[in-house]
Amino acid sequence: MNSKNSPSHLPDHVLLQIFRYLKAEDILNLSSVSQTWYRVSKDELLWKSLVKRDWNVNPTIGIAPGQTSWFSEYLRLWQHTPILETEVLKGHTHQVLHVSFSHNGKYFATCSKDGYVMLWDAGYPARIKHYYDMKVYSWKNTQFSQFNESDTLLLVSGVHFGNHSNTGEIAVFNLEEDFVIQCRMSNKPYDFFGTWYNDNYLLSGDLRWLAHLVSTSVVWLNRASQESDSEFTSIMNRMFKFYNRSASSIRSITVANCRSLPQRQHTSSSPTPSNTSDDCSSNKSCHETGNPISHPDLPTADTKTTDRSSRKEEDVFFHNSTEGTLWPTNSGEFQSWRRDSPNITAARMGNRDYETKEESKSDDDEVEKESTRSDSPLACSGAEASSQRAESEATDDDSEEVLDPREKFLIFTMGSRTYTPHQIGLKRISPFTFCNRIDIGPSLAERVAIQRQERQALEESLALGIPPPEPVWQDFEAVADRFDPIDHVIDLNGHIIGMSLSPDHRYLYVNVRPWPQGCIIENPLQPPPIAQEIDIHVIDLVTLKQVGSLLRAHRSFTPNDECFFIFLDVSNNYVASGAEDKYAYIWDRHYGVVLAKFPHQDVVNAVSFNPRDPEILITASDDYTLKIWRSRHRARQLNLPLVDLPVGMEFRQRSSLLN
Fold first, then answer.
1. Secondary structure (3-state) at 613
2. In which element (H, E) is residue 15 found?
3. How many helices (DSSP H) and strands (DSSP E) are in the chain?
4. How far apart are the first and last CA of the chain?
5. Out of 113, 295, 359, 390, which could bridge 94 as a Cys pair, Cβ 3.0 to 4.6 Å?
């Protein structure tokens, strides 16, 4: 071996060429032969070639932002990606529909068709900490769960019994008091799911039909703690009322914290203005090579730190609602009694001052306007007598509170061409105050008098042959002032079956089963056929443009009328999703390639990364089980026998010839 012809004395370029044909495991073993081989084995160009080869990465894609070593990247993809099945959990007795982690990574919650919600300790081995049978409240199943920011409360949504019921309910569990139910609220439709607005308030939905194929979706803001010492204390405010056409509705809502666009990115090619739609499938400029990872350097939009110049630039992307208020004055299908008052105080967005408007209308118009103004979710007005009675129960100190100083996005799925969700809607929410005091409205005698006046006016109109005016709900332009506008709509030209935010709330990842290219929808009740392949679209919530799509890998087989949600999850480096093909899949966010798939015996409905340790992934399946997958690195730390653990199906191509 000391001869000049021995392999240890080969020139570096020859060794590199030989190493390029070897597996990574063999290269690491050979690195201990000599100092020369060790030096060559750490060559960055060698490991760059191995990353491109073994995971079939597009040659034009560079190293992930923030990374400087291809060798470290290879080790991350190989040793630090969840791949080993370390546990199989069988706590549920029916199909497991959802799994979610707490923000501190210590617990996870699961929902199932058995009607139970379970809270698990996420340590090794995982164990059930609490459980609750929601069938006692006429729940058919539990379907979704989400922890609040402080991990003290758990939101759980479910479906009520009934073969054709679209009604659901949301329950809030207190995790500091032995998993007791703190409050419950209606939620319609059930696939609205619900979400946390901040640590102490959550959103629920309501759906009401107005005419054939036309309905309205109402978003309610609810206190998580609904105990009150006074009958005049408000526990819920109405946030938005949206117009639905083509038998569609608002579904699958989530809330994201807005991020500011860096100054250098403001160009003339700004995103589509409010109330317009982006068709990313037909806009080739929307797509870029590769996929983004989180950008923690971007500041969040905060009214305390945002100056006026940045606010002006943000107005390029968003238009405020009517008269600059977050909730415009709407005439209502949801009337609440209130005293006649010439001055109405409207809650304004952000730091804007309250504005008082004096109405000078006829008596009939005044009644209509008063009922209209009652729809404003934050309106805290009323006659002096009502205010005095309310003030006797609530002090001025608790009449209003700014819920959150951060600007937020309300994100949801919707449809305009057919009833199936094929669009992403976004509504920007600036900081606002929550009205703590209920306007008790007129007395019984005053209500009787108002009804008598309305009835008399109606009889006089009919006597003159003038029918009462009826809104033409099918004509949106005629009734648009009754609803809140949607700031931005992105059409994905397919059936949306899942979406998830990146940890920094910069990107939205969406599972979509695409429609045929160029399809024409003639009947909103007959949507186009959907593909079995699922695409993952990536939307930048700063520019509101599609910035890439991951490679196709997962599949679904159900038709439109039976299609259900397939939950996905996003960590700093990875994206994971369930699928109907009995596998869960994991991709690398930057390189856009599938890394592995994890087998089950039936449909995989949901996945969830541990937010504090993305080397741990949980998959939930119709086979009644949950599986916990850990990286090789984590398994070694737990002293688990790696050779005895089932391994997911890796897409790593080893020892193949390099091009």
1. strand
2. helix 12-19
3. 11, 34
4. 32
5. 113
Per DSSP (E only), the strands in 573-624 are: 574-577, 583-588, 594-599, 604-610, 613-621
Amino acid letter, residue 588: D
d(CA 428, CA 414): 16
What are the tokens at 655? 């020892």
Instruction: Tell me the C-alpha distance between 150 and 397, whole Å.
Output: 25
Half-sphere exposure of 289 (CA within 13 A, CB side): 8
Tracing tokens 């002006």 back to the chain, one arrives at 312
CA distance 133 to 113: 11
Chain-centroid distance of CA 340 in Å reads 41
**35-64 pLDDT, tens digit each:** 888 888 888 999 999 999 999 999 999 999
Q: Which helix (H) or strand (E) holds 462?
A: helix 444-463
- 13 and 38 Cβ atoms separated by less than 8 Å: no
Q: What are phi and psi of 59, to 5 degrees?
A: -60, -20
**Of 425-439, 507-521, 569-583, 618-632, minimum mean pLDDT range:** 425-439
**pTM (2 decimals)?**
0.79
The rounded distance, in Å, linking the Cα atoms of 99 and 117 is 10
Segments of 70-152 assigned E as strands: 84-89, 96-101, 107-112, 116-121, 127-133, 139-147
Which H/E stretch holds residue 280?
Answer: none
Write the DSSP assignment of 372-391 as a string of letters: HHTT-TT-----HHHHHHHH
Q: Tell me how far apart the alpha carbons of residues 70 and 459 are, in angstroms, rounded to a whole number.
A: 82
Q: How far is CA 281 from CA 230, 473, 535, 538, in A?
A: 53, 31, 12, 12
Asked whether residue 635 carries a pLDDT value surpassing 50, the answer given is: yes
